[in-house]
Design goal:
Strand content: 5-15%
Oligomer: single chain
Helix content: 25-40%
Structural class: alpha+beta
Distance between the termini: 36 Å
Order of helices and strands: HHEEEEEEHEE
């Protein structure tokens, strides 16, 4: 698997060519063990390539039209569990973090807050359906009208939930 440093220039070339959706992945974020070695290594592999991608998009005047999202599969605990080399993070369904840049997102804005331990979202909570509704809105799609038929029923990506988080919009 190639490093994100090789993927982000490719993502930029796709964006320049008009590709409307690009996904760049970096696997290995679980860190259920050996977090003291694994997390710094993972961060080092993505920090500079992502910063370069954002800088390049901004320099080319494309950032305002390009939505960038960075996140994981779901939340992780804020503390390491276990001892020594086996210390790692567990899954956390009560808090997760993503960041958005460009593409109609309010610059420099932080939405929501966790408790003092980072264990539970306590202010301006955003459900995953709200995140999806907001992303679709930023891409010019109405999440309430975007449906697909399955087993004789219309379904939508945000189920019967989902509200656009207007505070994050530019």
């Amino acid at each position: 698997m190639c490093r994100p440093g090789r993927r982000t220039p490719t993502a930029l070339r796709f964006a320049e060519a008009g590709v409307r959706f690009i996904q760049v992945n970096k696997s290995g974020w679980d860190h259920h063990g050996s977090i003291d070695k694994g997390l710094p290594k993972s961060c080092a592999q993505v920090d500079q390539p992502i910063a370069a991608l954002l800088s390049d998009l901004k320099m080319r005047g494309m950032l305002q039209d390009t939505l960038v999202l960075f996140g994981g599969e779901f939340g992780r605990t804020a503390t390491a569990e276990g001892e020594g080399e086996n210390a790692g993070r567990d899954h956390n369904a009560d808090a997760f973090t993503v960041w958005l840049a460009g593409g109609g997102v309010r610059s420099g804005y932080a939405h929501g807050m966790t408790d003092d331990h980072g264990a539970k979202a306590v202010q301006d909570r955003v459900h995953v359906h709200d995140l999806h509704a907001t992303l679709l809105h930023l891409m010019g799609l109405n999440h309430e009208k975007l449906t697909y038929r399955y087993a004789g029923r219309d379904f939508r990506l945000t189920d019967v939930y989902g509200n656009v988080v207007k505070e994050v919009l530019a």
